[in-house]
Specification:
Length: about 450
């Protein structure tokens, strides 16, 4: 066993999102969000559930903060619900909504926990959706005003800000694939949304800079690194295109490279950009490329791509190992992709600082008769991924923190309560929390600022 130690002041934390844990969907003046509407629409959520109650964190947050404190977790990433603060999306500010997050932030600081606040984790006010949602350019300005309201209230105490969580999900997953709210299947709309989300990020950065001086600001992107299934040229191109679709479309404009030319050409050819990049107005690309202090990295799995349409793409050696492990989400466990991704972001995109804003796994382990939740597979997943992070740091990749997804089991979007990502188990009937084995393991890891290298052969 080798001891692995992380850099001094490495920020360890756990992550959550408002709609997935808060509940209290119509309390204290909160407006309706697109996720309320979506979850209340029959057929949208796998188990027919909603986030109406979720983990009841809105009422139980002191207990949740106490759990983090007891585990010695130094950082907490959460998101604020836009419709709780500005119920109609623009205009009237709901003081009770702001009060809630002020109490939470104060509670965290009293517990010695550094807050990292995400402004948008998908719960757009429904009234804005009624006006076109993110397809409307005005939604970007409404978001900037919302960022202004939140940072005026919390900017004196919150020193880490994420504007958006996973713009790929907000745009493509929600408007092209249609699996997330608002559930559209419309390519041109999805690409318009992507642009307005990126624009709103740039506009919000300006507001955060003035209201939270000295704070660190970033955006969190999700990555599922693409691997060609075989050495064929067709599979290579399929993988390259997937990365264009999933990450380069966001990463390139954010880092001043504009939209990737190969993807623009492809989208025009397919009819996905009927008016080309007409949604890009003068100055937008400069706004989007606003300087940020860190990039938030959400990583869970990789994707293996095979071009089945190419006639000459004969089956060759397929790299996807049949013996690969998969989590309850069906996601392949592949820490090597995490390692490569971190290197690429720093050495290719020259990202000056990275914070892992999400990494974790769903396994359906339940409490035994003594209340113990033996989630050894999660411990192993997290260990292996942290070893990958550590290897990247050894190469010189500036990773400044790691936020495990998630503090507790919660509403997993279109999959409802069928998945459990937490290091804390939630019984949704009693709302009782049980610390899983991984919670104690994470506590010890944080206390030692490192771990013993896990030997998979026993
Ligand atoms: C990410 C989301 C997060 C959670 C995890 C499993 O895409 O940001 O809210 O659902 O996946």
């Amino acid at each position: 066993m080798t001891k692995i130690t992380f850099p001094d002041r490495f920020l360890w934390g756990v992550s959550t999102a408002a709609y997935q844990i808060e509940g209290a969907w119509n309390e204290d003046g909160r407006g309706e969000s697109i996720w309320d509407r979506f979850a209340h629409t029959p057929g949208r959520i796998q188990d027919g559930s909603t986030g109406d109650v979720a983990c009841d964190h809105y009422h139980r947050w002191p207990e949740d903060v106490a759990i983090m404190r007891a585990l010695g977790i130094p950082g907490y990433r959460f998101s604020v619900a836009w419709p709780r603060i500005v119920p109609a999306g623009r205009g009237l500010v709901n003081q009770k909504g702001l009060d809630f997050y002020n109490r939470l932030v104060d509670g965290l600081l009293q517990a010695g926990i550094t807050p990292l606040l995400t402004l948008y984790h998908w719960d757009l006010p429904q009234s804005l959706q009624d006006e076109g949602g993110w397809t409307a350019r005005e939604t970007a300005t409404a978001f900037a005003t919302f960022a202004d309201v939140v940072s005026r209230s919390l900017g004196d105490r919150v020193k880490h800000w994420v504007t958006h969580n996973e713009p790929w999900c907000t745009s493509l997953l929600s408007h092209q694939i249609g699996l997330h709210a608002p559930g559209w299947q419309d390519w041109p709309a999805a690409l318009t949304v992507a642009h307005h989300v990126l624009l709103s990020h740039g506009l919000a950065v300006e507001r955060l800079r003035s209201n939270a001086p000295g704070a660190e600001v970033g955006i969190a992107l999700n990555f599922d690194p693409a691997w060609p299934a075989s050495p064929s040229a067709a599979d290579y191109h399929a993988a390259r295109r997937h990365e264009g679709y999933f990450s380069r479309w966001f990463l390139d404009p954010l880092y001043g490279r504009r939209y990737p030319a190969d993807m623009v050409e492809y989208y025009i050819q397919e009819g996905y950009l009927p008016q080309g990049l007409a949604f890009v107005q003068e100055g937008d690309l400069e706004t989007i490329a606003a300087h940020t202090d860190f990039l938030g990295v959400n990583y869970y799995t990789r994707r293996v791509l095979r071009d089945t349409a190419a006639p000459d793409n004969l089956p060759q050696t397929v790299f996807a190992a049949p013996a690969s492990e998969h989590t309850a989400m069906g996601w392949e466990v592949h820490p090597e992709s995490f390692y490569r991704l971190l290197n690429r972001l720093h050495f290719e995109y020259l990202v000056p600082k990275l914070i892992i804003t999400e990494n974790g796994c769903s396994y359906l382990d339940h409490p035994d008769e003594n209340g113990r939740v033996a989630d050894g597979r999660r411990i192993r997943y997290l260990s292996d991924h942290l070893i990958a992070v550590h290897r990247a740091i050894q190469n010189g990749v500036p990773v400044a923190g790691y936020f495990q997804w998630s503090l507790m089991d919660n509403f997993e979007w279109a999959l409802g309560y069928t998945q459990r990502f937490g290091i804390v188990y939630v019984d949704y009937v009693t709302q009782k929390r049980y610390l899983k084995d991984s919670a104690y393991w994470y506590r010890d890891l944080i206390a030692r600022n490192g771990l013993e290298q896990y030997k998979s052969d026993g």
